[in-house]
């Protein structure tokens, strides 16, 4: 019985990165022998065990055979005679197919160290094509290791997988799991670029894929191409270390521009409302969590209004706050501001870093929300207890007055809605 550290722990150590988790492969052992040594079995599809002290995972060396489309159609074979090289060859990328023995010796039969030096993602064998999740994983790795490129032969293999319908067999939960993890990496735009290069984005997120080649007014968007703009917005959200709902909303905010008739380009009047239906469509298909869905829908609908905040009248601002349920969910409204901030800052041609580009709308609307929330709605309700139908109107008027005072908006100077 011999144990090796494999996968990400070895890869990250070679890259000089912090190692968080260790996965182990066990060669020359049976399940009964593992249990006899105190390991606790946890694997469903194949034998995986938790170490009795460290609780780290130890998997028996195995081979696998494809039996059906998708990522669940596999039969696994484990036995004491499966070699380390046979186990490693089933792994996705060469950089993840390196094993380290207890004495520090590396086993690298497929050139993983070379590809780490070259900064290349390369599949280990044609078995890569048997599991469509590997396309998503590679794209997620690209978001984490943004200086790596995809080997041409690997990209070609992924294109073949897409053409053969393998990506279409992915279940929504797994797609969302990988996408959400990729969105939280340092440069999530790379994930979308990799998926788009092999054709997988058109299958997974066709509403997003169509944005490439759709022009926008150069005055507001020096990058012109809407798809490129989305990449910039997403990387801005990452640079500002925003939470997952904000990053997802940033990615989804301009879907409506993908359905603007080409004879109207580069204008996109009404794209906000058009985008709402598309965002809802994506979220339903991928079973996106409620928190991410609600913010993405709100951002698609309201990012134009937030962007124009400095020109809005107090009454319009209060209507925006009410529409966004900001009085009950102020934290979500702040997330809307953050997503719109990324939309504003994420444009090629904006001078300085993402963090340096001005976005005064944030402080403006936060001050408005604070002022409006300061209105004592209960006190107003008590004053009109005999006229309950008037309470909403009076509360609204009080909030408008509070916002007007806080933002120093004079009636004669108000801009039209």
From TrEMBL:
PANTHER family: MULTIFUNCTIONAL CCA PROTEIN (PTHR47545:SF1). It comes from Duganella margarita. GO terms for molecular function: ATP binding; CCA tRNA nucleotidyltransferase activity; cyclic-nucleotide phosphodiesterase activity; magnesium ion binding; phosphatase activity; tRNA binding. InterPro entries: CCA_bact (IPR012006), HD/PDEase_dom (IPR003607), HD_domain (IPR006674), NT_sf (IPR043519), PolA_pol_head_dom (IPR002646), PolyA_RNA-bd (IPR032828), tRNA_CCA-adding_enzyme (IPR050124). The keyword Membrane does not apply. It catalyses: a tRNA with a 3' CCA end + 2 CTP + ATP = a tRNA with a 3' CCACCA end + 3 diphosphate; a tRNA precursor + 2 CTP + ATP = a tRNA with a 3' CCA end + 3 diphosphate. Keywords: ATP-binding, Hydrolase, Magnesium, Metal-binding, Multifunctional enzyme, Nickel, Nucleotide-binding, Nucleotidyltransferase, RNA repair, RNA-binding, Transferase, tRNA processing. ATP binds at residues 8, 11, 91, 137, 140. The keyword Kinase does not apply. SUPFAM superfamilies: Nucleotidyltransferase (SSF81301), Poly A polymerase C-terminal region-like (SSF81891). HAMAP family: CCA_bact_type1, CCA_bact_type2. It holds the Pfam family PolyA_pol. CTP binds at residues 8, 11, 91, 137, 140. This is Multifunctional CCA protein. Mg(2+) binds at residues 21, 23. GO terms for biological process: RNA repair; tRNA 3'-terminal CCA addition. Catalyzes the addition and repair of the essential 3'-terminal CCA sequence in tRNAs without using a nucleic acid template. Adds these three nucleotides in the order of C, C, and A to the tRNA nucleotide-73, using CTP and ATP as substrates and producing inorganic pyrophosphate. tRNA 3'-terminal CCA addition is required both for tRNA processing and repair. Also involved in tRNA surveillance by mediating tandem CCA addition to generate a CCACCA at the 3' terminus of unstable tRNAs. While stable tRNAs receive only 3'-terminal CCA, unstable tRNAs are marked with CCACCA and rapidly degraded.
């Amino acid at each position: 019985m011999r144990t090796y550290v494999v996968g990400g722990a070895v890869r990250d150590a070679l890259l000089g990165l912090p190692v968080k988790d260790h996965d182990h492969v066990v060669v020359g052992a049976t399940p009964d022998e593992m249990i006899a040594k105190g390991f606790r079995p946890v694997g469903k599809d194949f034998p995986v065990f938790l170490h009795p002290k460290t609780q780290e995972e130890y998997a028996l060396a195995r081979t696998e055979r494809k039996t059906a489309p998708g990522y669940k159609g596999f039969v696994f074979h484990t036995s004491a005679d499966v070699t380390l090289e046979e186990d490693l060859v089933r792994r996705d990328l060469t950089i993840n197919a390196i094993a380290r023995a207890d004495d520090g010796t590396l086993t690298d039969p497929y050139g993983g160290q070379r590809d780490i030096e070259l900064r290349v993602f390369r599949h280990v064998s044609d078995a890569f094509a048997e599991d469509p999740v590997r396309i998503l994983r590679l794209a997620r790795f690209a978001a984490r290791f943004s200086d790596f490129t995809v080997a041409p032969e690997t990209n070609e293999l992924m294109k073949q997988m897409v053409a053969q319908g393998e990506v279409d067999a992915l279940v929504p939960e797994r797609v969302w799991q990988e996408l959400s993890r990729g969105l939280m990496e340092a440069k999530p735009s790379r994930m979308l670029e990799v998926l788009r290069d092999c054709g997988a984005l058109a299958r997974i997120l066709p509403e997003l894929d169509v944005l490439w080649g759709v022009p926008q007014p150069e005055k507001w968007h020096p990058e012109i191409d809407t798809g490129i703009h989305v990449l910039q917005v997403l990387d801005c959200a990452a640079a500002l270390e925003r939470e997952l709902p904000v990053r997802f909303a940033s990615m989804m905010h301009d879907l409506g521009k993908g359905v603007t008739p080409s004879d109207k380009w580069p204008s996109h009047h009404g794209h906000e409302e058009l985008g709402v239906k598309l965002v809802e469509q994506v979220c339903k298909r991928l079973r996106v969590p409620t928190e991410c869905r609600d913010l993405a829908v709100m951002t698609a609908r309201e990012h134009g209004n937030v962007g124009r905040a400095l020109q809005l009248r107090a009454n319009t601002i209060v209507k925006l706050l009410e529409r966004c349920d900001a009085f009950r969910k102020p934290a979500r409204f702040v997330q809307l501001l953050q997503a719109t901030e990324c939309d504003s800052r994420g444009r090629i041609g904006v001078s300085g870093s993402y963090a340096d580009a001005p976005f005064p709308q944030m402080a403006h609307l936060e001050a408005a929300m604070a002022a409006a929330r300061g209105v004592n709605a209960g006190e107003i309700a008590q004053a009109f207890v005999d006229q309950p139908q008037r309470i909403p109107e009076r509360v609204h008027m009080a909030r408008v007055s509070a916002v007007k005072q806080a933002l120093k908006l004079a009636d004669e100077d108000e801009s039209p809605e």
